Amino acid sequence: EDQVTQSPEALRLQEGESSSLNCSYTVSGLRGLFWYRQDPGKGPEFLFTLYSAGEEKEKERLKATLTKKESFLHITAPKPEDSATYLCAVQPLEGGSEKLVFGKGTKLTVNP
Amino acid sequence: GAGVSQSPSNKVTEKGKDVELRCDPISGHTALYWYRQSLGQGLEFLIYFQGNSAPDKSGLPSDRFSAERTGGSVSTLTIQRTQQEDSAVYLCASSLYIVGLVSTDTQYFGPGTRLTVL
Asked: Regarding predicted confidence, which is higher, A70 or A97?
């Protein structure tokens, strides 16, 4: 069964304190791994797609990396506006469906 | 351009009543998805449309749940005889599906409909 596990469940940082969020996955074959950001009361907002081990993508203070078993979302010098829940999802290669399998998310709070 | 829109944003209903949730995808997106997000849980896949057909409806939790899509655009998710465990946020997403594309394409989400069953 395809599974995604995110850790930690919640993370509190001081403004400027860099850290990383983890997403480990078990999937028969990986078509793509996605990172989304979700603010309270809103739908997920797309951040990155990663396709193969070794791939990295960056956007402002965020950098996503991918290995064969996990992905990391690195946050450099975070600001309070980076506070949100970060969701990781995989799209399995097999099965013929386009569905995404999501983790439960990491709730990030950045204090000023 | 306009993103995915959903209506209503909030729905409160009584146990046993039927509800309809609507999704308007991004213009030109041929693929449409429904997910459910319950408190403390991750997003759970419900059903996927390619055009007006649903190649994967494996996530629908029971036969009380159904969905349709007309004109390759608007989709409606219907829940019959609602139960308290149906209370959740129902999210719709769409993507620009290209036949034969090896890599995946991005799913863009709407704001969701928060359903509360009393």
From this structure: A70
